[in-house]
Structures are given as C-alpha cells and as structure tokens.
Write the structure tokens for this entry.
Amino acid sequence: MVTVARNAAPTIADTIQSVSGQVYASVEHIVIDGVSTDGTLDTIDRYRSKIAKVISEPDQGLYDAMNKGLALASGEVIGFLNADDVYAHRDVLSRVMAIMEHEGLDALSGDVEFFRPEDPARTVRRYRSARFNPDRIAFGWMPAHPALFLRRRVYQRFGLFRTDYRIAGDFEYCARIFRDKTLAYHSLPETLVRMRTGGISTGGWRNTVLLNREVLRACRENGIDTNMLKIFSKYPAKVLEFFAK
C-alpha cells in the first residue's frame, strides 16, 4: 500500500490508522513525502512503527512520487491510498485479497464515497466503479483509482506512471492497461474507500478543464478514438452520483 503526501498534517494520521487497522495481516505501508513543511513528518514519525518504509525528498510531481512508491513496494498486489483518504472498514484489504486470489484477477476495483471534511459522517457522492468497462475509456470513465488494486505483474508489463501528466496520470495508466482488454478484471459493487472533497481532481473548474484536456490526450496517445463531446457526455451521470448515494 502506497501513500503519497505533501503538507497533509491534518489528515495523514487518519490514513495511516486506516491502513494499520486492517485485519489483513500482510500489509506493507509505504509513505512517500514530498518534503512537507507543515508537521506531516512529525505525524509520520509518531506512527513510524506502523509504516514499512518512509521517504521524504523532493520529487517531480505526484506521479513521480507514486513511481517511487512502486519501486519500493514488494507485495504482489499494490494499491494507492491518498494522504487524506481512508478505507471504508477494517476488512477492505482482506476482502480484496480473497477475491483476487479466488478469481485469479489482475485488477480489482470498488466504489469510493466522498465526504466534506467538516462533516465526515455524511456521504455527498458515491463513485461506482461498476460504471467502468474498457469500452468506456473513450468517454472519460475509469475505475476509482484509490479503490483500484493491481497485481505487481501489471506494473511489470505496462511500466510506471507517466510524469508528464499533472492530474490525469492515473487515467492515462488505466487507458494504457485496459485498452487491449486482456486483464482479468472485476469491479466490486461496494464502498472500499472514503475520500475527502477538495483534492486535486475535485478542486474547482480549472482542475476540471486540465483534467479533461489530459484525458483527451491520454486517449489519443493510447490509440483510443475519442473527442471532447464524448468525454463531457459522462457529466450527467456524474451529477446523478450526488443523488444516488
């Protein structure tokens, strides 16, 4: 399990506790810090016994930091949990591993619930990964990345995240690995991760514009036929996520 952090002092303790509290015994938690200046490192130090590996050094952006985590990870299944996200319950990883082993999966994803930091008990939106299938990449759909778990062999086959993307590197990676439809993949229709609103992908219209430009670019660079009209067609369904929680 890899967590990338920079100046996440108010939230990273929740993330670390969420991972360390999992009932699944063989969890390797790796934290990659981008030289935080707000007390994040102090919090990490307090929980150092619960973390397998910690790096704090400058990076070239989010996806460079994620690649550092991949380079350190030794597990057969790898997931990313953001420094302001938490697992929905203590059995998430044990359930994920049991299903992946039983079904021989390369990839498994679940749902993500969003909540406002000031009201964590109330879900404001639910992203259902079951909406995704490889044919919908051209329409801007992907599995919810914090609830996506991939075998190590997937990274060995398809490589690392591209660091020339600012906000949609995870989408580009999904476009890359799912476009040939050869992965053994399953979507679990239940919430695995709870995410605070206000992150980079939910941080206002400027980020939305950048995201969709990079989604268009990712599709084209991976040979997926699309256009902005297709990509924007997903938004009515996304609006419904706020009502169908």
Notes: The CA atoms of residues 87 and 243 lie 22 Å apart.
